[in-house]
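DNA-binding transcriptional regulator, GntR family
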Amino acid sequence: MGHDMVRKNGSKLLAANVHDILRQKILTLEFKPGTRLIEDEISETLGVGRTPVREALLRLQGEGFVAREKGWVVDEIDPADAPMLFESRIAIEGYATRLAAKRRPYTLIATLRGLAEKMSNFSGLSRAELNALDREFHRLIVEASGNAFFIEMHERTQYNYWNLRLPILFTREQVEASNAQHLGIIDAIEAQDDQLAEELARAHIATTMTIVQDALSGF
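C-alpha cells:
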C-alpha cells in the first residue's frame, strides 16, 4: 500500500472519529443549538488537523446537525418540524419494533420492564428524568431490531424531538396512558407477535404526536 493511500485512509479515519465525537456532544447537549463551532478550536482540542475537522463538519451538515451561518453553528430546530419528526419515528420505530419482536433478545424484556416500572413511579421523577427513561426505552427497542441504519436514524429523530424546546407538559392521565402502552408493547415483543408489536408502537407514537400538535396549536 502506497503512502498516499495510507494518508488518505488515515484522514478518513480521523474525520470519522471527529464526526463521532462532535455528534455525541450535540446529542448530549454539551453543544446546544446555536453554539458556534470554530474549526481551529476543535482542531486544537482534539489534536487533529483542520482537514478531518472540516470533513466531519460537512458530514454533520449533511445530517442536519450543523449549519453554516458566517461559520459553523449547531442547528436550531423549528417546532413546526414536529409533525415530520413524529412521522419519521412512526415509520422507523414501528418496523424496528416488529423486528425486535421477531428477534426478542434474551435480556430485552427484563430491561424494558425495569424501565417501565421506573416510569410508573413518575410522581417522584423530574420531567428530564422521565424523558430520559422514555428515550432509553425506545432506544433499546430500536437497537434490538439489529438494523444499524434504524439505530442511526432513530437517534437523529430523538435529538430533534427533545431539542424542540416545546412548552409541553403531559398530564398525569397522559403519562399513565403512555405507560400502559409501553407495557402492551413489551407484552407483544415477549409473545413474539411482531404484527401487534408494530401496531402498538405506531399507535403509541401517534398518540404522543397528537398531544404535541394539540399543545402547539395553543401557542
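The beta strands are 36-37, 66-68, 72-74.
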